[in-house]
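Encode chain A's predicted structure.
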Amino acid sequence: MDHHTQPRILIVDDHEIVRQGIRTLLTAERPDWTICGEAKNAGEAFDAINNLKPSLVVLDITMPGTSGLELARRISKLRLPAYLLMFTMHESDRLGLDVREAGAQGYVLKSQAARDLVIAIETLLGGGTFFGMRSEQEPQREIANKPDPGASVSHSSKSVWKTVARGFQPPKPFKLGEAYS
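Encoded structure for chain A:
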């Protein structure tokens, strides 16, 4: 994409409130970007992509009729000069693979949109990919490189926690008058 041209973004989601939310977020964060259109289903989206020539399409995966993934496959076969960013509320172990196989350059979880959407779009417009934290290797490396959380716990603390875990019951509190009655 020519970096001197203002990015043109098409928003595709079957829920109007979601489209409005994306539009509001993007125009607030990046007023230099143009929201060139919106679509509520695959048919409208396909027409809009052909007519409006967006640089990037934010595409909901779960829509009635043709899914966003199926639409992404169709768009990818046409080799249009538009980046595809899938937008979903459904996280799964296969999500990254499914999105890649559909020909999209990334995805953002709806639950992480406030944090990730602008960054993901910037990344795609720059020629990169954005596949969320779970589908990349970063989390595995992060976990592999983290120290053992129990390594800094003293032996006596471990002993106390083991006793508590086994169901240790502390003695009943002493009440004045009970001990000598």
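Residues 134-170 have pLDDT under 50 and may be disordered.
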